[in-house]
Amino acid sequence: MTADTFDIGFTLNGQAKTIAVRTDAMLADVLRNDLGLLGTKISCNEGECGACTVLIDGRAANSCIVLAVEVDGCDVVTIEGIADGGTLHPIQEAFIAEGAVHCGYCTPGMILSTKALLDHVPEPDTAEIRKALEGNLCRCTGYNRILKAVGRAAATLRDVSSRAATSQAGE
């Protein structure tokens, strides 16, 4: 560690990480340039477009405006961390099924914002979905397919949760 770097420790996609970062380094840059996680996109560098969205302690955050030192001790999830090995997360599957992945640039941020919403609100209404996604911009499409994908993912996750609860009750 030098005067202008700081050692941080955090959980990244379920794995403990320790890395020396510059005190002025933004999390998006560290994820992409130092850790090779290219799913976190950098576009506006102002926290306006949502392309760089990650989850920090379960909350959606624009990583282009978060200093890397701020995640010391936190749990960070990127788009690379939500699939289970080779199996896509139900949110990813819903986005594909509804055709909500046009060019794909905004998709990681949309999916992570959706995950943050559905982890806290399993049955969101349209207004709640719109509110959760309002910081994510898509230039390729209207948002109808994205809204349908979020609804589909919510239904799938509720069904999976219900089946798991029924299975556990029967044991």
Automatic annotation (TrEMBL):
<dbReference type="Pfam" id="PF00111">
    <property type="entry name" value="Fer2"/>
</dbReference>
<keyword id="KW-0479">Metal-binding</keyword>
<keyword id="KW-0408">Iron</keyword>
<dbReference type="InterPro" id="IPR036010">
    <property type="entry name" value="2Fe-2S_ferredoxin-like_sf"/>
</dbReference>
<dbReference type="InterPro" id="IPR002888">
    <property type="entry name" value="2Fe-2S-bd"/>
</dbReference>
<keyword id="KW-0411">Iron-sulfur</keyword>
<dbReference type="Pfam" id="PF01799">
    <property type="entry name" value="Fer2_2"/>
</dbReference>
<protein>
    <submittedName>
        <fullName>(2Fe-2S)-binding protein</fullName>
    </submittedName>
</protein>
<dbReference type="InterPro" id="IPR001041">
    <property type="entry name" value="2Fe-2S_ferredoxin-type"/>
</dbReference>
<keyword id="KW-0001">2Fe-2S</keyword>
<dbReference type="InterPro" id="IPR012675">
    <property type="entry name" value="Beta-grasp_dom_sf"/>
</dbReference>
<dbReference type="GO" id="GO:0051537">
    <property type="term" value="F:2 iron, 2 sulfur cluster binding"/>
</dbReference>
<dbReference type="GO" id="GO:0046872">
    <property type="term" value="F:metal ion binding"/>
</dbReference>
<feature type="domain" description="2Fe-2S ferredoxin-type">
    <location>
        <begin position="6"/>
        <end position="82"/>
    </location>
</feature>
<keyword id="KW-0560">Oxidoreductase</keyword>
<dbReference type="InterPro" id="IPR006058">
    <property type="entry name" value="2Fe2S_fd_BS"/>
</dbReference>
<dbReference type="InterPro" id="IPR036884">
    <property type="entry name" value="2Fe-2S-bd_dom_sf"/>
</dbReference>
<dbReference type="InterPro" id="IPR051452">
    <property type="entry name" value="Diverse_Oxidoreductases"/>
</dbReference>
<dbReference type="GO" id="GO:0016491">
    <property type="term" value="F:oxidoreductase activity"/>
</dbReference>
